[in-house]
């Protein structure tokens, strides 16, 4: 007989793993589906200093702790890429490239993908000077000159991280002020080998087989400035991964899944958590909160469905 799980959790980031812990402790049969490594965006975070209970911890260490916690509850994992998700009906279907899973409820925690610059040659230079993960590739540019584009917490954290490796770091931001935390902005502004390039955007990527130079256009004056670099790190945000969902999920104008306070979507038994949902704050602690709520509400939903079936 084909197995039907109580809950299928799509994505093993902090929200997904927290949901797994709550669902397993409630006695539910859970499958967590993750296409890559457990931890999600945590793995690209060098140092975390705002997660309650840990003054400082690396993203990888926190991800490992969360994963080990789920395993103490005998949580089942499937490492596969989701191809299609059918959200309608009493039994939801998750089609992956290797196998298909069925569940009474779904918790969507795909997260979001990095945004691109959408410039000519960007794809050509990925891995040849362009990176979207400073903690993954920063070591490759030790003692060299790099640029980083962005103005949020991730960009500021990555900039400070890179400044401890690279000879020189240019931080390019389209506004005069950063969107990130004041303490991070202060750290970046005080670092001697970081040069701020504000009110500016990258307009051209130059090189042969390897990225060698960028052109930066000042949005106020129109001045175009060439900057010679060895590497460019793009940290301009992330966008929701919802293209594999087969069903008319209610989305915000930016493509994020709209939920109520209980993480419920407009489909019965389907919940969304973390970076994929329309939320005013995307942090580890909020993703964990989302996961706890979603799992609790999934348990309540399953209980009600079982009563109805009697």
Could you give a quick summary of the protein structure above?
With 310 residues, this protein is of the alpha/beta class.
Task: Describe the protein in words.
By secondary structure, this protein is α/β, with parallel strands linked by helices. The chain has seven helices and 18 strands. Strands 1, 2, 3, 4, 5, 6, 17 and 18 form an eight-stranded mixed sheet that branches. Strands 8-15-9-10-11 form a five-stranded parallel sheet, with helices on one face. The protein has a three-stranded antiparallel sheet with strand order 12-13-14, with no helix packed on it. Helix 1 runs parallel beside helix 7 and helix 5 runs parallel beside helix 6. The protein is elongated, with a radius of gyration of 21 Å. The two termini are 21 Å apart. The relative contact order is 0.18. The model has no long low-confidence stretch (mean pLDDT 93).
List keywords for this structure.
26% helix, 5-stranded parallel sheet, alpha/beta, 310 residues
Our Rg estimate from Cα atoms comes to: 21 Å
Overall body shape: elongated
Q: Span from first to last CA?
A: 21 Å
Helix content, binned percent: 25-40%
Coarse structural class: alpha/beta
Give the biggest beta sheet.
8 strands, mixed
User: Which residues sit in consecutive blocks of at least 5 with pLDDT less than 50?
Assistant: none
Number of helical elements: 7
Tell me, rounded to a whole number, the average pLDDT: 93
The share of residues in extended strands comes to 25-35%
- What sequence of helices (H) and strands (E) makes up the elements? EHEHEEEEEHEHEHEHEEEEEEEEH
* E-strand count: 18
């Amino acid at each position: 007989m084909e197995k039907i799980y109580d809950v299928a959790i799509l994505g093993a980031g902090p929200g997904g793993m927290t949901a797994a812990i709550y669902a397993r402790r409630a006695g539910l049969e859970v499958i967590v589906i993750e296409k890559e490594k457990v931890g999600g965006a945590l793995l690209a975070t060098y140092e975390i200093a705002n997660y309650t209970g840990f003054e400082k911890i690396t993203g990888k260490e926190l991800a490992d702790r969360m994963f080990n916690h789920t395993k103490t509850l005998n949580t089942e994992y499937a490492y596969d890429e989701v191809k299609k998700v059918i959200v309608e009906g009493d039994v939801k279907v998750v089609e992956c490239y290797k196998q298909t899973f069925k569940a009474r409820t779904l918790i969507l925690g795909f997260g979001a993908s990095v945004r691109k610059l959408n410039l000519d040659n960007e794809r050509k230079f990925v891995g040849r000077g362009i990176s979207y993960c400073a903690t993954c590739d920063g070591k490759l540019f030790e003692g060299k000159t790099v640029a980083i584009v962005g103005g949020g917490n991730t960009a500021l954290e990555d900039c400070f991280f890179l400044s401890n490796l690279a000879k020189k770091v240019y931080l390019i931001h389209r506004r005069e002020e950063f969107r990130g935390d004041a303490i991070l902005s202060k750290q970046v502004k005080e670092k001697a080998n970081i040069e701020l390039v504000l009110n500016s955007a990258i307009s051209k990527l130059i090189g042969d087989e390897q990225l060698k130079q960028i052109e930066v256009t000042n949005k106020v004056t129109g001045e175009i400035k060439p900057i010679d670099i060895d590497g460019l790190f793009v940290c301009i945000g992330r966008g929701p991964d919802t293209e594999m969902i087969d069903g008319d999920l209610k989305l915000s104008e930016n493509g994020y899944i709209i939920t109520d306070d209980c993480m419920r979507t407009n489909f019965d038994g389907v919940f969304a958590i973390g970076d994929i949902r329309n939320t005013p704050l995307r942090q580890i602690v909020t993703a964990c909160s989302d996961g706890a709520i979603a799992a609790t509400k999934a348990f309540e939903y399953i209980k009600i469905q079982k009563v109805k079936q009697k």
